[in-house]
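Good morning C.,

I know you're traveling, so I'll keep this short. The sequence:
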Amino acid sequence: MTVSRVVELEGHIVDSGMMQAAFGIIMDYGGSFDVEVFDIGRQKHEESYARLCVSADTDENLQQIIHELHQHGANPADPSDVELDLAPADQVVPHGFYSTTNHLTQVRYDGTWLDVEHMEMDCAIVIREDETPPRAHTKVLNAIEAGDRIVVGNAGIRVQPPERPRGQTGAFGFMRGGVSAERPSKTTIQQIADAIETTREDGGNILVVAGPALIHSGAREELARLVSAGYVDSLSVGNGFAVHDIERDLYGTSLGVNTETLDHARHGHKHHIYAISEIIRAGGIEAAVDAEILESGVMYQCVKNDVPFVIAGSIRDDGPLPDTITDAIEAQNAIREQAHEADMVLLLSTLLHSVAVGNCLPSTTRVVCVDINPSTVTQLLDRGSAQAVGMVTDIGTFVPILTAELLE
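The tokens, ready to paste straight into the viewer:
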């Protein structure tokens, strides 16, 4: 005896690989399928439609297949309303709760499809029935409150992965090619600059996520110029980035090394801890700027130009600076708030911090990732985003060229 369910795929399902992915999932999980309808778009702008009857030996196996197909945008042809269950306690979700992807998602409630707000991966979906009209939004597990109405199972949920239509043009048309160390860097950086300009002209929000390597490589002044010129709307960094940026202003070094001459300063290994102590003594970064203790750099320009920044701490931090958020949950929430506002994100030579920010982004957010390590770029971009581009290059080369494209 077999059980079956009909699913539908719509959009640019051939170019995006959705059809191939669906066939592979069904076969990998031991199921079978019949293609009942396949209407393929014959022009670049035309979308396609497919209806598949998916079969399996057991209901459990079929549900497993449907769940996996669902994550790739294959939705049941006969949707019912979403299933809800109450959270039994704070930070406790019901068994079988729906764990989100980072793709745009809708849930069917009382016969109406609701857009799920603040999409990000690995969250629960909460329905607010006490609001008119009802709202659906994501919540991380540590924010769940007793009595929250949580979506469970897979019924009444529609996932919309970003598509890759043929002939994509415009400022963001290039952001679909993946990672390559052989791609012409100058051309790609020009395209990234055009995308930044377009985002800015459209009133979009640009978030920069940067690691200490940017300071070590000598690109500090160029990033500071971009902040001053209004090309950075928010900054997300770790304690190390901020410390080395400040050290460069106070002592002319980064980790004790002059970034221009590459000379090791006498007693330079103490400069970073001296820099931390000066900012603590001043009462924080903004206070140090106001007192004219800090007079240049990325953090200085953020304060002078009212660019909000989040400095997230870690277990390995020295100090840390007074502005560093040392509570991990508080830091996550601050990063999440930045990510939800971002229309374009630059991930500049920092793996762990970029992963933290990337976890909060929907798959439609435009992402540029730059790192000298190819595996870092691949890991960060392999998140299902269609609006992403990766460059394997030295951050000390990338930022100055990008700055020149934007400002000169």
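Safe travels,
E.
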